[in-house]
Design brief:
About 45% of the residues lie in helices and about 10% in strands. The chain has about 500 residues and is of the alpha/beta class. Strands 2-1-3-11-6 form a 5-stranded mixed β-sheet, with helices on both faces. A 3-stranded antiparallel β-sheet has the order 8-7-9. A two-stranded antiparallel ribbon has the order 4-5.
Length: about 500
């Protein structure tokens, strides 16, 4: 099938799914066959926290005068242009749309229309735009699992910097983006598919007050995570449990948590021969551990995605979770939760063993800090690519990232310099919009980040095959962890064979 035909069919399939004319399982199968890694569609179907820090928005929001002056000068030829951008509800997009884009618009005269949509609708809009080459949208939000499919439909930002020197933002410094994110999110083969834009990543969050009350220390290992959690559940249950999971049957959230446990026990999903290896000795040990941990979690955890997990901690039902770092500012906001100032962040538990990337298949990188990032790119079909390039540079420059971060978005910045920005550091205190967890996020990205395999069939495997089977296992449908994992292996083999 020609690439143009493939993308036209992909657009048709995605449109049918969004309109309710195709169920999710059929959609995942179809996109797998078309070469689209749509695994992260599961993330678009849940809630991601974004709490605007109104105090910052009203009193301390001061975009760089130098950046504004540059925008005013370089934007003059594009005044009156309208740019369109469809994005998932992420902290950067929400902050830019609700608070920051007015500064860009005032400086340049360029109007920016941002559609904040569920992730499956973002994919629908993008695939229809690519298939038609109409250029309805000027900028694309690209989940990391889509990078291969759309790498030729966007500009490599390095090419834009070289070709459009007169439009290059002073001190934009493309080398400032964290190398691990460039490699793990924004590169496909030798091309940059935009620049790193958003980076949700697993860190360890725990109730320091409860830990201190019971004489416990922050869990540095998986064994400590279990023993601490069991002690809390025994002492404080049924009001407060030691740990909350994201274990909803059939949901991508369950696959994310299981994968982190698997990697943490020295396992991997695939081996170097690209065969499923989640059912080896390490994989069985990981699932047995996960089962044991579930036994001391709150009732109903098998109905929770990351949203239910986060709410359990926020409402004092659970004392810890290994999950997305962007929840931390939510927990610190006294207007949103019962636990403001009571939570602490640390790096994920150290792995019992860790399989090397070269021992795995399909680009899988084991690491307990499971990541799920995205890129921002200019569409090759845009009718206003130069104006879009100005917006993309501004939206991802260090100054804008610092403002997004201090507004309370929660997700880690994708630039190294932003972690050291005085504005960001000044908010490293208890309260709404805190940034006190960011050193942990930065360290996790640099040392402990884990990335899922990159293959077309991963959409179906991660959002259907694995979490459905795991859900059945936790409901008692299998006789043992080995039986469940062997069945997952059999199903994955069938999926890969087509």
């Amino acid at each position: 099938m020609k690439d143009s035909d493939r993308k036209s069919y992909l657009a048709s399939v995605t449109d049918r799914f969004v309109r309710g004319q195709m169920d999710r399982r059929a959609f995942l199968r179809a996109t797998s066959k078309l070469g689209l890694g749509a695994a992260a569609l599961g993330m678009g179907m849940g809630s991601r926290p974004f709490m605007l820090n109104k105090a910052v928005a009203q009193e301390e929001l001061q975009p760089s005068a130098e950046v504004m002056a540059w925008l005013k000068d370089v934007g003059k030829p594009f005044a009156g242009t309208t740019l369109k951008f469809a994005t998932e509800s992420t902290p950067p997009s929400n902050a830019i749309n609700s608070q920051l884009k007015k500064y860009f618009e005032e400086a340049t005269g360029i109007k920016v229309e941002i559609e904040v949509l569920p992730l499956e609708q973002v994919l629908q809009k993008m695939t229809l735009d690519v298939a038609s080459s109409l250029g309805t949208y000027d900028l694309y939000y690209i989940d990391q699992s889509w990078a291969a499919s759309f790498s030729q439909d966007v500009f490599d930002p390095r090419e834009q910097i070289k070709a459009k020197a007169d439009l290059a933002m002073p001190n934009y410094n493309i080398d400032d983006f964290l190398p691990a994110l460039v490699d793990g999110i924004s590169k496909y083969q030798d091309r940059w598919v935009g620049v790193p834009y958003d980076i949700p990543i697993f860190i360890m969050i725990y109730r320091k007050d409860i830990y201190e009350k019971l004489g416990l220390k922050a869990p540095a290992t998986f064994e400590e995570l279990y023993t601490n959690s069991a002690a809390i559940t025994k002492e404080m249950g049924p009001n407060t449990f030691g740990y909350a999971g994201q274990m909803k049957s059939g949901h991508y959230a369950l696959e994310c948590e299981w994968t982190s446990m698997l990697w943490g026990h020295g396992g991997s999903i695939f081996n170097a021969d690209k065969a499923f290896t989640g059912n080896d000795e390490r994989g069985i040990a990981a699932l047995d551990y996960y089962t044991k941990l579930k036994d001391i979690m709150p009732p109903g955890v098998n109905q929770w995605t990351w949203d239910g997990q986060g709410q359990a901690v926020a409402q004092g039902v659970a004392a810890s979770m290994l999950s997305w770092g962007e929840f931390f500012p939510f927990f610190d906001d006294p207007t949103q939760t019962k636990v403001s100032g009571l939570c602490e962040a640390v790096i994920p538990p150290q792995p019992i063993a860790l399989r090397k990337p070269e021992e795995c298949g399909y680009g899988e990188i084991p690491g307990v800090g499971h990541q799920g990032g995205s890129s921002l790119a200019v569409s090759r079909y845009s009718k206003n690519p130069d104006a879009a390039w100005l917006f993309m540079q501004w939206a991802t420059c260090a100054d804008t990232q610092a403002l997004v971060t201090t507004l309370g978005g929660g997700t880690g910045p994708t630039r190294a310099s932003v972690y050291d920005d005085p504005r960001v550091k000044s908010h490293a205190r208890v309260g709404a919009g805190t940034t006190r967890h960011l050193p942990v996020v930065r360290e996790t990205i640099a040392k402990y980040m884990g990335s899922e395999p990159d293959l077309p069939e991963w959409a179906q495997i991660s959002s259907d095959t694995i979490p459905v089977a795991l859900g059945k296992y936790f409901s008692g449908s299998y006789g043992s962890s080995k039986e469940a994992l062997d069945d997952i292996g059999t199903q994955i083999t069938a999926v890969l064979k087509g």
